Amino acid sequence: MQSPTRKAKLGSEQATDRPAQSPICNILDLPTELLMQITSLLPMGSIRNLMVNRWLRSVCEQGLYQSISLPRHPRRSIRLLETFLLRPDLALLVQHLEIDCNFNLKPRAIPSAPQLEGLGALSLAQNIRSLSVRAVGDAVRRLLQAQPLLDEFKLLDTEPSSVASSLQASDVPNLKSLQARPEVAMAFLPVTPQLESLNLALTIWSDRLLSSMATKAAAIKLSIRRFTIQVFDYGIR
After folding, report:
1. DSSP sequence for the chain
2. pLDDT 10s digits, 201-220
3. How much is the pTM?
């Protein structure tokens, strides 16, 4: 019969002989939401290292593409749209997006801009809830029709004629918050009775314009709870 001391020694040896559990196994056991929060705090170099693992790559991609901010970066915006065309699955991960579509600012610096098929690539991102887009041109309605979940929309540097006569309620069924020039906002008011927040961006204060907007709004049953006006000196920022 073995003594208690001998048993303890054998138990210790057996425990020592067991292979140590790999740290990566512990990481993979964490909830995906927690892993996404962790990766969002890491430098890009560390994220690249994690993406070597197939499962962690998926988590990293969700963290990287869930929220993207590229205001006033047309070159980087083009690279993003090219990525959407190559990887439509990544486009579906985006929920919050700020993008600059003014591709004509520096044509020499953006050689691939003419190759893009309008905003077709941006329309691939169909799970966006918050969208801030600059210089979208005449494709506003097409863009909105591809965003059924959109509830916050910032439309910057866009002419009223781009949305004045074509916008329909079915294009913005869930829109709750809007930021735009007054002339553009007036095209939205008749088709967004569910709107709760309105932010008007002005380059020049105009009592006549605001009075005209107030008259139009009075004829529409709106549920706006938050109304703000921003006046900028040198264009909408």
Report:
1. ---HHHHHHHHHHHHHHSPPPPHHHHHHTS-HHHHHHHHHTS-HHHHHHHTTSHHHHHHHHHHHHSEEEETT-HHHHHHHHHHHHH-HHHHTT--EEEEE--TTS-GGG-TTGGGS-TTTTGGG-TT-SEEEEE--GGGHHHHHHT-TT--EEEEES--GGGTTTT--GGGSTT--EEEE-HHHHHHHGGG-TT--EEEEEESS--HHHHHHHHHHHHTS-----EEEEEE-SSS--
2. 887 777 777 777 777 766 66
3. 0.74
